[in-house]
Amino acid sequence: MVQSFINARTLTPADMRNPKLAAEIAKQLRRFHQVEIPGSKEPQLWNDVSKFFEKASSLKFDEIEKQSMYETISFKEVQKEIVELKELAGHLNAPVVFSHNDLLSGNIMVNDEQEKLYLIDFEYGSYNYRGYDIGNHFSEYAGYDCDYSLYPNKDEQNHFFRHYLRPDKPEEVSDQDLEVLYVEANTFMLASHLFWALWALIQAKMSPIDFDYLGYFFLRYNEYKKQKEMCVSLAQSYLSRSGRGGHCC
What we know:
GO molecular function: ethanolamine kinase activity
Structural class: mainly alpha
Strand order of the largest sheet: 1-3-4
Enzyme class: transferase
Protein name: ethanolamine kinase
Pathway: Phospholipid metabolism; phosphatidylethanolamine biosynthesis; phosphatidylethanolamine from ethanolamine: step 1/3
Family: Belongs to the choline/ethanolamine kinase family.
């Protein structure tokens, strides 16, 4: 089924680092987040993570090698991480918006001549936390090789935030507003790793696609563990200064 044809090229992960394109993605994402969709406006992140966990923690693989790898996963540990991160993120009171939830380079197109950018593929779209949509997008800077050294630094993130918060006057965004979004995005980036790690386990069992989904679980979960201390510390420091409490891990 063809719904429409867009005369544009698909972005590469490297394109997302381009300051001009990053600014345009931020503007388009702001517009997307302002869409009002009828129905429940409950954020879906933790509901989805809970469903994924339930399925992912009770799988059985026919292949002995896959089953052996699967059995090395401590689901008790994973569940503890989910509960603690959910509690911490809850203290941030992040705005709930209609979110794309899968803003990787393959879901962004650009017509270079007309300088028009398009967000496509809304199959994961739902109401969700603003910080999750942005943090998940930043994780996709790593590309298909999952090179997380490419995750945007604070200056690159602030460039994105300025154009997201004030597309008309990005230079007028306050330091306080930048900090709020920086904490949100980097806390929910952790949730993104947990979400896609659990998703990958289910795909390892169900998907007909020839891809190492089991290996992908470990890539995402290990990156979560690597980034956890820094991001949790960032959020706790922010919460203690703003008087909102919040303790995790």
